Amino acid sequence: MSSDYETDRASVQVVVENEATGRVKDIYKEIQETLGIDFVPNMYKALAGNPDYLEMTWNKVQMVMGEDGKLGRKTKDIVALTVSIMSGCEYCTRVYNEAAKHAGLDDAALLELYEVIDLYSGLNRLNIGLQTKMDEKPWHGCGGG
Amino acid sequence: MSSDYETDRASVQVVVENEATGRVKDIYKEIQETLGIDFVPNMYKALAGNPDYLEMTWNKVQMVMGEDGKLGRKTKDIVALTVSIMSGCEYCTRVYNEAAKHAGLDDAALLELYEVIDLYSGLNRLNIGLQTKMDEKPWHGCGGG
Amino acid sequence: MSSDYETDRASVQVVVENEATGRVKDIYKEIQETLGIDFVPNMYKALAGNPDYLEMTWNKVQMVMGEDGKLGRKTKDIVALTVSIMSGCEYCTRVYNEAAKHAGLDDAALLELYEVIDLYSGLNRLNIGLQTKMDEKPWHGCGGG
Amino acid sequence: MSSDYETDRASVQVVVENEATGRVKDIYKEIQETLGIDFVPNMYKALAGNPDYLEMTWNKVQMVMGEDGKLGRKTKDIVALTVSIMSGCEYCTRVYNEAAKHAGLDDAALLELYEVIDLYSGLNRLNIGLQTKMDEKPWHGCGGG
Amino acid sequence: MSSDYETDRASVQVVVENEATGRVKDIYKEIQETLGIDFVPNMYKALAGNPDYLEMTWNKVQMVMGEDGKLGRKTKDIVALTVSIMSGCEYCTRVYNEAAKHAGLDDAALLELYEVIDLYSGLNRLNIGLQTKMDEKPWHGCGGG
Amino acid sequence: MSSDYETDRASVQVVVENEATGRVKDIYKEIQETLGIDFVPNMYKALAGNPDYLEMTWNKVQMVMGEDGKLGRKTKDIVALTVSIMSGCEYCTRVYNEAAKHAGLDDAALLELYEVIDLYSGLNRLNIGLQTKMDEKPWHGCGGG
């Protein structure tokens, strides 16, 4: 037997789609159109309690991710997933894992990504433990290069 | 006035280049040739106290980073830097920042990378705070796409 | 079909309320009275295997949180929630989100808190990535003030 | 003897004050006026390579921190410092420690803040280790309340 | 009602036991024999998409953990659990909690371990907050000698 | 040229040894005697602004670390160092690295410790990325038995 408290745990009330009005409704519409989905992700619905913040967040996502720039969108999606894994955010890891697949990464590519994250998570912590001193000259991080 | 203790802080003795013998000497040579540098980075010199571990670590770096695979070496360098920043390892951030420059990222590209890390570090923590529930259907992480 | 192993995951046996005796029973009673609840939180029940540690922990909570001091209890509750979100502890985020509501934060106030956490989680990681040098003179962190 | 590489470590070139032009120059002026200082913090000078991003970041800081809202500016400064300590960002811990002092926290108040961070960093990790199960009913986090 | 998306969340396809062939089948057999279990843990099944990586990972585990060395296997199991708790990995905390029990830690010993983790997680964050300066001379960390 | 602000960064005023009075003086004396040193570590001097908190912290350290219990003091010192490395606290890594040496770990033993931390930091992040599902039955973490 599980109580309501155990299972229902959102921190704040969300604004559901059919209750959105005004600016929130407009942003919800833009989110769905831009992402090509017929619902508003729970993350954005939680922000809608403060329409200014919802708008700024959506605009920041668009600005940072919406243009190719020098890195390219696919690389940015890979970075977004890496950051989510390093932050330990389950919701985000889930979402950006989908995004990475959508950007063209198959299971072999995803596994490569996890290998790099495994390698450097280990080496990073190793260097923190070793209190490694800065080298006197620069070098380029890894082999084969 | 600062004492020796304050300034000299490596956790273990390193094996310096001209004292390396046998297998360690061979690996040191391979590291310098592969990386195209005339010294051995402090990280590897600290591992040389256990030659098996030095060898396995170097082989792992070569295996994970040395071949292009599906992601490509440049993308892997970007992920290595991202992981280092998320781990808070100064030595590693320094080294892989150099590696990213060596891989062709100029200041504008690096700034783009930091923007993505800023954006998702914020959103990740936001979703952890919001205890955002998993959406009922998948979506693809960000705008524009 | 899920096995017992998959679902039952507490790390140590807890001491349930009606099996508590002696000092543990007394502390359980004090916890319930102080917190105004008719049960003992699972966290404390897990510590009861070592009564000295249970007592010291409860006393530390009382000492740090139980008096208003210079910060005030509400501010301390906000800090407790912030720390929990930054640590990525789900149980704690849940509990201190309730505590923050109990201390008078409505959804608008909670959202403000998450905004600040979002902002500085992003800026912190940005500065770690940028390896920002210390400024030559102090400044006061943010605008408007 | 320390080389240039060892000591000079900014990740990207900064735009110094007297080389700023156009929009960057305007934002630099606004930053100095708003913060009441006669220099531009290194963080913002590093972002100036992308004027859009500099502007958006400064606007976000103003929006999130510049108005009192429900939490009040002082509480937000405390949260900013807490987030910085939890992220392990030295530059930010330094800056927001100054900000907290500027907001009126004396050493006794700062120590109270560190006590709360100490307490919950410990309890958070304890609950992660214990794999504490969610309680069946809500409670309010701490004693005295 | 919960959708497939909500509940089924592995990031990549796993190679199940009875579909394993060649080298993967051999490693699966070795894993089961070495660990004394009649199944392959999900972690290894996820790595099998890249047999080289599966093999290297298994070999690294064997090399680092499989011999007693100077620390002893039990101590290494305790460190593995500590690292898992500090990383916030639920799967790993679960697995290495079992490993610690298997290595002979009863509930009282586990609780002692969590106490040490609680203590130093708190003190660590306290020193990060305090920006504690390095002492002029070394000392040995804690009381009692 | 570096300004005072750049170099002098303690967050709060410390109480130096020869200015300590009353209870603080007594605790300082006990700390020096117990640790066998002729100075008070900077960490404790920073806490002395709140004598109650200084006393409780010192007592907690003594209680958790001062007795052998089931784990033994040497194992606890190893855990303290592991936690410090995982938290990314430089001061603490430094201090507990000394403590581990004092407890009898030579460079080979320390390197073994860093290997275990490297291994599991990598595997932990790998499992977080893989969103590895809980296994249906327990297993014991690593190879070799």
Structure overview:
6 copies of one chain form a homohexamer. By secondary structure, chain A is mainly alpha-helical. Chain A contains 7 helices and no strands. The first copy, chain A, has helices at residues 4-7, 22-35, 42-47, 51-65, 73-87, 90-102, 107-130. In chain A, helix 5 runs antiparallel to helix 6 (90-102). The longest helix of chain A has 24 residues, at 107-130. The radius of gyration of chain A is 20 Å and the shape is globular. The termini of chain A are far apart. The model of chain A has no long low-confidence stretch (mean pLDDT 91). Chains in contact: A-B, A-C, A-D, A-E, A-F, B-C, B-D, B-E, B-F, C-D, C-E, C-F, D-E, D-F, E-F. Chain A binds chain F through residues 81, 85-86, 88, 90, 93-94, 97, 113-114, 117-119, 121-126, 128-131, and chain F through 81, 85-86, 88, 90, 93-94, 97, 113-114, 117-119, 121-126, 128-131.
The helix fraction of chain A, in percent, is 55-70%
Q: Number of helical segments of chain A? A: 7
Instruction: Estimate the strand proportion of chain A.
Output: under 5%
By DSSP, the count of extended strands of chain A is: 0
Most extensive protein-chain contact, per-chain counts: A-B, 87 and 87 residues
Question: What multimeric state do the chains show?
Answer: homohexamer
Low-confidence stretches of chain A: none
Distance between the termini of chain A: 58 Å
Order of helices and strands of chain A: HHHHHHH
- Provide the gyration radius of chain A in Å: 20 Å
